[in-house]
Design goal:
A hairpin with a 2-residue loop joins strand 7 and strand 8. By secondary structure, the chain is mainly beta. It is built from one helix and 15 strands. The termini are far apart. The chain is globular, with a radius of gyration of 20 Å. Strands 1, 2, 3, 4, 6, 11, 12, 13 and 15 form a nine-stranded antiparallel beta sheet that branches. The chain has a six-stranded antiparallel beta sheet with strand order 5-14-7-8-9-10, with no helix packed on it. The chain folds into two domains: 30 residues; 186 residues, Jelly Rolls. It is 13% helix and 46% strand.
Length: 222
């Protein structure tokens, strides 16, 4: 009887070890940008800024100046962080999805601490924000307004992402199963558990006294 119990316990331990190995392997695999085949993605929303059929803000006010020109959205932010949103891009959060944007800093107006941002799941100003500083440090914040007193940092990296300051940076947010994975230029930076959306707005923006150019914004199911 004792021998049978010992065999059963060993088999149970091996089964748990196998399951744990599979789970670790799966998570590690998701840290590889190429894990998701682009040919299998189903595009839900895509903006390439060749025109303004999606009605992005263009003009100037006290917060910012927005302009679509030469296939880019030019966003110049004034004295406080600000962004532009696309209304009601409904993402079924029960599915795996990806949000990507190509963003470049304008050298003449942005210092190394200037940040570009990609936000999602927004309702009014409450949202999740994926920030990237011009010198390459990413973080994720949960904000009910944009400003240091209204944002809680959820994730922050002490390591610089691999960026080319004179090129467009590719910001990627992936939700797979119950986890978000974040990438800069196809390199994994960090992950966190999935959190429910506040609303259906997505968009791009920048911190104060920063100008950025946005090449595209895409939402896809994986």
């Amino acid at each position: 009887m004792i021998q049978l119990l010992s065999i059963f316990c060993r088999k149970k331990a091996l089964a748990f070890l196998l399951i744990a190995t599979i789970l670790v392997s799966s998570v590690a695999g998701q840290m590889n940008y190429a894990r998701q085949d682009s040919t299998n993605k189903k595009i839900l929303f895509h903006e390439s800024f060749v025109n303004n059929q999606n009605r992005w803000y263009t003009g100037s006010d006290k917060h910012m100046t927005g302009l679509i020109e030469n296939g880019y959205y030019n966003l110049a932010v004034n004295n406080s962080a600000y962004g532009v949103a696309k209304d009601s891009v409904f993402i079924d959060a029960t599915k795996d999805f990806e949000i990507e944007a190509g963003i470049k800093f304008a050298d003449e107006r942005s210092d190394k601490k200037s940040s570009a941002m990609l936000f999602w799941g927004r309702d009014s100003m409450q949202s999740f924000y994926f920030f990237l500083t011009k010198d390459g440090y990413p973080n994720v914040s949960n904000c009910d307004e944009l400003g240091k007193h209204h944002c809680k940092t959820v994730l922050k990296s002490k390591n610089k992402a691999a960026i080319n300051a004179n090129a467009f940076q590719l910001l990627t947010i992936r939700k797979v199963a119950n986890t978000y994975y974040f990438f800069i230029n196809k390199e994994y930076v960090f992950s966190m558990p999935f959190l429910p959306f506040y609303g259906n707005h997505i968009g791009i923006g920048a911190t104060k006294k920063t100008t950025v150019f946005i090449d595209f914004l895409t939402v896809s199911y994986l």
